[in-house]
Hints:
It is a single chain. By secondary structure, the chain is mostly helical. The chain folds into two domains: 1-38, no CATH class; 42-120, no CATH class. It has five helices and two strands; from the N terminus they run E-E-H-H-H-H-H. The protein has helices spanning 44-55, 60-67, 71-84, 95-103, 109-120; strands at 18-22, 29-34. A two-stranded antiparallel sheet has the order 1-2. The longest helix is centred in the middle third of the chain and has 14 residues, at 71-84. It is elongated.
Amino acid sequence: MKRExxxxxxxxxxxxxxxxxxxxxxxxxxxxxxxQDKFASLSQDEKDFIExxxxxxxxxxxxxxxxxxxYPTVRNKLDGVISALGHKVEKNTSRLEILKLLDEGxxxxxxxTKMLDELRD
Length: 121
């Protein structure tokens, strides 16, 4: 049974260190202290979203279609991944940009309303 990479200690929640690797075919074992990359700590949903994002070449419109979700929901998922990777999420979509997206048909009027409401928060 293949398991996901553990990143945090199930007892104290501290970051775990990988101390060995073993080849499933020949049995070769390598021991040491190996640093995990930041993607290892993402949830499976976040990893699936990143894979889809890459496969759709970052087209939010295509991701909307594939997942059947709204533009703001795609943006929120993307912001969640950015935050989980340890980066600050900057909410810099202006009213003008939202209206441009609406005018170009990239978002619905409902999506535009939600996004404009979020700017007020």
